[in-house]
Amino acid sequence: MASPTAGPHAALEIQIDQWRGYVRRREAISAADVDEMEDHLRERVEDLRATGLDDEEAFLVAVKRMGDLDAVSREFAREHSDRLWKQLVLVRPAPEDGTRTWRELVVVLALAVGAGVAVKVATELVPAEEVLLRNVGLLVFPFLAGYFAWKRRLTWQDGLTLLVPFVVLAVALNAYPFAPIGSTEVLAAIHAPVVLWALVGVAYVAGRWRSDAGRMDFARFTGELAVYFTLLALGGGVLIGLTLGVFSLADVDLEPWLEDWILPFCVPGALVVAAWLVEAKQNVVENIAPVLTKVFTPLTVVMLVALFAVLATAGDLAAVDRELLILMDAILVLVLCLLLYSVSARDPLAPPTLFDGLQLVLVVAALAVDAVALTAMLTRIAEFGVSPNKAAALGLNLLLLVHLVGSAVLAARFLRRRPLDALVRWQTRFLPVYAVWAAVVVVAFPPLFGFV
């Protein structure tokens, strides 16, 4: 249903569009149901405006009277449970004529095979493992970006613009005279996938990268992709294990084929297929995110408190093991992921709950751990000097510190009944900063540190 977004009630139309988008993420509610609910919402808004309320007041009261969307969704699911199962059809009827279309499936399979071929050819032509390691993202992610470019119908101009950073990254990764297995080479290999994934995100949002909603959609997609890829990996591992067992009984050794052919094709191909499954079943697994968040948030709080106690009593921070600092960074990234997926699945109109308070505790505990990690890093730098690894770790921890401080402040404001939008915007607008930092590590660090 088209709604004007300009005129005397433009702000109201924007609010209704946002509400409509939120409702449509409920898989049990069809587009026709959403249209009907929107009609009821507009009628209620008009009635309330007639009593003297302004647009914003009328909208908030009308939405409140519509009822809790989770309860509405559950009711629709009970009455129309067949809809959820129909979402699991891989090849859906084309809306224009009702016939089935295999076009997208063919494109996805071609790109999946292409990614596998690229990896296999590279493993045959590039004997040096370190060269293959830093280029593996360049062999796979362009196929994933190509799928979204095709899916979103990007123009040639947009496609060429997207191609430029891919080329720049490829040149930097392969033209730099890295020292064999040196620090800058390892850092480039680790950070290049972050930059490449951001480029995939640009293709995914199709020109909406400056949009908070677009970045949040890509964040949701990333989480769902992780779920699907893990399921495919588990299922594929079981299948491969059974196959190896059967062939071993016949005295046929498949392990050389597994290493040389099956894994180079299956792993990159599974990533493309998983992305297609997320697109085809959009939001079917989205409700897993808040469930996992509620399970792991209290466990992570306990882990952070224990980690802080260990570090606070460790004595000389300069002697803290480097691997421990790396694990701490991974834990802090996990904390931010828990917060991001929590706010992405939350009803923005619902009041704060006890779980929101627990998330604030989580962020504060992460801040304490990050402060100790930063102190340890600065102590090591003061004692042993600056190295590429220390500089990269310090930069990441400073970014995490800023991100966590902003999240803590905005989460505290939300607990005082401030709007949730500010916290959501902070999460989505900070995400590109990590991609920029990763690009700096890949492109600028090697020449700055002499390619060591």
In what range is the share of β-strand residues? under 5%
Helical proportion?
over 70%
| Rg over alpha carbons | 25 Å
Count helical runs.
17
Question: What is the H/E string?
Answer: HHHHHHHHHHHHHHHHH
**Subunit arrangement of the protein:** single chain
Largest sheet: number of strands, sense, barrel closure: none
Mean pLDDT: 81
Shape from CA axes?
A: globular
- Indicate the low-confidence ranges by residue numbers: 1-5, 76-85, 95-100
The total count of strands amounts to 0
Structural class: mainly alpha
Summed up:
The chain has 452 residues and is mostly helical. Helices cover 78% and strands 0% of the residues.
Describe the structure.
With 452 residues, this protein is mostly helical. It has 17 helices and no strands. Residues 1-5, 76-85 and 95-100 have low confidence and may be disordered.
What structural keywords apply?
452 residues, mainly alpha, 17 helices, 0% strand, globular
Question: Secondary structure elements and their pairing?
Answer:
Layout: H1 10-24, H2 31-50, H3 55-66, H4 69-79, H5 81-86, H6 103-125, H7 129-151, H8 156-175, H9 183-205, H10 212-249, H11 255-280, H12 288-312, H13 322-344, H14 354-384, H15 388-415, H16 421-443, H17 445-448
